[in-house]
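Quick start: load a record and inspect it. Here is Sugar transport protein 13:
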Amino acid sequence: MAGGGLAANDLDAKITPKVVISCIMAATGGLMFGYDIGVSGGVTSMDDFLKIFFPQEYRTTQEIGLNSNYCKYNNQGLQLFSSSLYQAALVATFFASYTTRKLGRRFTMLIAGIFFIVGVVFTAGAFDMAMLIFGRIALGCGVGFANQAIPLLLSEIAPTRVRGGLNILFQLNITIGILFANLVSYGTSKIKGGWNWRLSLGLAGIPALLITAGSLLVLDTPNSLIERGKLEEGKMVLKKIRGVVNVEHEFEELVEASRVAKEVKQPFRNLLMTENRPQLVITVALQIFQQLAGINAIMFYAPVLFNTLGFGGYSSLYSAVIVGSVNVLSTVLSIYLVDKLGRRFLLLEAGWLIPSESFPLEMRSAGQSVSVCVNMLFTAVIAQTFLSMLCTFKYRIFLFFSGWVLVMTIFTIFFIPETKNVPIEEMTERVWKQHWYWKRATMTFICNEATIDQCNISTIYHAYISTSLSASLSVYW
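Running the structure step on this input writes:
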């Protein structure tokens, strides 16, 4: 593919109403995901919820004494209520990879919306643990499908110069969803008669209906349409979203990328190929760091955590609202800054952004599946173990998370390239092959076809390190 041509064409592209509407509606999937994150901590801090599903845990929470505070929510069943959603999302993402590739990003959004609606009905109407967990599993399937399709749709439909900002609409909606859940939990906690937790879980129906309706309004991406052989429709959509008539250069690049994609029969296996190794390693690392940094653990269990620290019932929920508000404001600021200061500077938001835009078209759906899968795996682990870790480590658990933040910072400085203002189909040539370390890793393919004296010792050494890391990942998967 020609380097730089798309960037020049992108200068003429407009931010059309169709792009804005499609991105806003697509990003509502983040609203549902965020609500699911925030509401679990809220309802698990409600006595009426604990009395029905976790009576032993309810009795434990009534104990008085600082030594018992750290351990009073240490219950595997209670943690399963939170983690079951992410375990289901982990499995669902592989099915979502197929539907995203074969049926399109838009249809995959619709599937997510249906799962969300089913999940809301079962969780809000649950009368026993089986119904409750089944509802959370359905919500998890929705998360798996939404997180697979939406970041791809946002990355592919947005003009290059504002791709970061529009993509972070998904993250913004996640934070708004968390804040909305915290506000709902705070308000419903005052309701008597045992309906407070049902109302909290039932109000998730609002974002569930929004993403379902949104899936009917958004445009499928030109990348997806061309990939599925709908060339004329893809070209027509490309003209609509760019707001210009002359889209020949970008269209030809997309067609060529689609041709290459069709030659790839096993995209997941091809993720381990040398030329895709940098994206794979960074994708996996970012998702692991995102969870080990501890932010989601706080979002899951904020009311419970503040209650453990000695806040009263209402005070703990109010404190969670404050945390959620700061999260939203920080994300709003990042939307403005991400395409100005870059992804590396705002790495918190690039847990999702960099993976969604890094892989070539032929591996993009599979790459996003790996991204979502790793994220959901470690999210489930954190959700299932945090309360137990809190009981064991006590205040030292934050030292554990801080250590991982330090590791992430060092990794970012040395190994995360900047991707702002780089056309998505030119990422390999203009980013990965230019990076000080990853360009050496990609030399493995060249060395394989050359004689030993054509490859210097440094190249072989760095190729060996990269190959070893990729091999360890392949064993893991």
